[in-house]
């Protein structure tokens, strides 16, 4: 299992003060069209979680520390917000997929490794590593996942977004 060919696309221009920033727009675009539920792990200010909920998905938004969690709950009071590190706030099978964006590739791998019961029950993952993307892809391959990488460009910046398919079960 490997990584499919990279393809580039240019997200639509962002109107000031409206919509998602380009990086999060690229992440949102990678969420499968027929998805019904998602966990935004490390949801930050809730922008992506709010956007995905507006698309009709059932969203669980998580944060790992009390301060960021309090800000998340204040930003998205109508969403299911949970406090806990990584995938720990989730039960196996309660969401179809997860979004993990803005962390390093090594950190993303350690989050998946720390909660194998939850990680292996997911149908898909959208991962957006800020660095070490190649190492993350190698780790995913060794762990039995298949990843398709997309590069989204916006001006001088580019973002690697990985759509990862279900873990191969023995």
Write the SSE topology.
Elements: E1 3-4, E2 8-9, H1 22-30, E3 37-41, H2 47-54, E4 58-63, H3 66-75, E5 80-83, E6 97-101, H4 105-114, H5 116-119, E7 124-128, H6 133-142, E8 146-154, E9 157-165
Parallel strand pairs: 1-8, 2-8, 3-4, 3-6, 4-5, 6-7
Antiparallel strand pairs: 7-9, 8-9
Helix pairs in contact: 1-2, 4-6
Would you mind describing this structure in some detail?
It is a single chain. The chain has 170 residues and is of the alpha/beta class. It has a single domain, classed as 3-Layer(aba) Sandwich (Rossmann fold), CATH 3.40.50. The chain contains six helices and nine strands, in the order ββαβαβαββααβαββ. Strands 1, 2, 3, 4, 5, 6, 7, 8 and 9 form a nine-stranded mixed beta sheet that branches. Strand 8 and strand 9 form a beta hairpin. Helix 1 packs across helix 2. It is globular. The protein starts with a strand and ends in a 5-residue tail after the last strand.
Give a concise summary.
The chain is of the alpha/beta class and 170 residues long. It has helices spanning 22-30, 47-54, 66-75, 105-114, 116-119, 133-142; strands at residues 3-4, 8-9, 37-41, 58-63, 80-83, 97-101, 124-128, 146-154, 157-165.
